[in-house]
Every structure is written in C-alpha cells, then in structure tokens.
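Deliverable D4.2, example record:
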Amino acid sequence: MKEEDLFYTLALTKVNGVGPIIGKRLIENFGTAKKVFKASTQELLIKRVSGQVTKQLQEKDNLIWAEKELKQMQKSHIQPLFYQEEKYPYYLHQCDDAPIILFYKGIGLPDWKSRPIVSLVGTRTPTTRGLAFCKQFMEVVQPFNPIVISGLAYGIDACIHREALAFGLETYGILGHGLQRIYPANHRKLANEMMEQGGVLTEFATQRKIERENFIQRNRIVAGMSQATVVVESAMKGGSMSSVTFANEYNRDVFAVPGRVDDLMSQGCNELIRTHRAQLLQDPREIIDVLNWNKVKTKVRLIQPELFLNLSEEEQRIYDYLNLVGRAVLDLIAMECNLPIYKVSTLLLQLELQGLVKPLPGKYYECMG
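Output generated by the structure prediction step:
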C-alpha cells in the first residue's frame, strides 16, 4: 500500500460516524480514501453522504492524527493490511463489518485462502482438563497444518498459542489494542515467539486507548478470520460467548467442548450445545471430519454429459470444481468458477435437487459424486 493511500485511509478510519461498513462504501464509491477527502460538498451530497460526515471530512484534526499514526507505524515496524489487498485475511474479508485496515507484526503472512484456519477461545481461568484439551487438539490437527487463531489473553488463549508453537503451527494473536504494546504485559515474550511463527494482528491504531469494549470488538475478528470457532471452556457469561455470537452471525461453524453440569467452566459450553449455537466436540478428530480437512484432492473425473441430462455448461463447471476440491464455501466457488454469487446460488440449488451436491453449515457445499 502506497504511503499516501495509507495516510488517507488512516484518516478516514478516524472520522466520527465512519465505521468499517460506511468507510468501505465511501472508498468504493469514490475510488480511494484520498478522493473521499478531496471530494466537494456537492459531490458528497450526490453520493448521499450525511451532513455530519461531510463536516467531519473537512476537519484537519483527522489528517494531523493520521500523520502522527503513520510515523508511529514506521517507527514500530507495523505493517498495514488494507481490505482490498490479497494479503488481507480471506475469511474476514467476507464479513460486512470487517475493518478497513488491519495492523500486523510478524515475519510474513500465510495464504489465508487455501489453508485450514481455526479459532480457539476460552476462559481466563481454565481447569487442567481444559489445558489438556488444548494440547490434545494441536497434536491431532498438526498433520493438517492449520493456522491457529486466538486472543492472546490469559488462560485458554495463551495455552492455545503456546501449544500451537510447540507443535510447529502458525498462530496469530488478535489484540484489543494497538501494536505499540502487548497486553497483558506478561505475554510479551509469548507474542515475540509468535511473531517468529505467525504474528499479532489488530484493528486498533497505536494511538487508541485500551478500553473494555475493544476486546468485544476484537472477538469479532477472532471469529471472522476462521472457518470455525472452538470454545474450550467458558462460564455462562464468559467473554468467549461474544466470539460465538459473531461466529453464528457470520454463518461459521462453532464447536463447544462439553463438561460436567456442575463444573462452572463448562456451563457456557454446555449451554451453547443445549441451545444449538454450537456443535458438540468431544474429540478434536471430529472437527477434521466436519470441516473436511482430510478430503484428499484427486484429479477431476471426466463426467459424461449424458449421465446428467439437465446439466448446463455452468452447472458442469461448478460440479467439476467441487469434484476436484470436495468442499468449498460459496464465495470461493463463485470466484473459482468465474460466476456471480447470485447465479452460483441458483445453480447450486439445481445441482442439489439432482443429488450432485450437498449444502453444509457456513455456506459450504460438498460434492456428492
């Protein structure tokens, strides 16, 4: 991202009344964040920008703030991840309220699109049983080389990151504050180790104060970045419950590890399972089956057209793609088959009626051939 583009994008995120949804809409309507700031009052009016936002865009304080933030990023070696760039987390990009820009520190970024990605969250006061599950989970999934996401908080989060590192897996901590500090401070050493085998990410600028609500916002990133969210242990009102709410809203798979009914740190998980907000996860191997990580990619089988008399050229294209990969999310099917999403939805329904594909949770579809 060019420095000038980054400068104006930072300034846009500072404008009162402009959140991720409105901010992205402005950028897409005008082309760049700079053009938003350079637009005349009349141009903003034509694009139906509110008077309050128009007034805020004319405030120089936003530009002064952005200049200071840019210097701090350069000083601290913080990398920006713009939502229109390919290196932006693939699954997060599908969320309407995904941040315009993320801030990152680490040695490199993975291929978010092709790798398995899972988030694990839980209580800050775990039991020995919960900690043991974290280790067992990493041991089971290691052969599939997933990217592991959590929040770098005390308890389950920290255990998840440590076990991922121990098993040689990439792990990313999503922070509820800017990258000029690590909170809790006791996790600075852990964060540094993660930056050598993954990294830390946040949507919060370095000048943003640490506030309680930031960590709830952080949880939507934890849920949005992943194919699925696993709750290891949680009380009824644990912070992890907000991650589940976001994951449910994003139509992502959610799993909860059950426990005894009289165990305080299992009450949240048991309630999620009881109310069908999460799937029961007794063994880490179950998530491999549900997310289809063990599906072996094979060569596309040539399908004789006469076998499926009603298959159009576009239906055949979708079927062949799913036959190759086994299982894929709707957005990826549309992109790989070079078809609009609305059309792919209709075509998938036709294939489903013919018994050729099967719909799965989280807008996934699986080949039945």
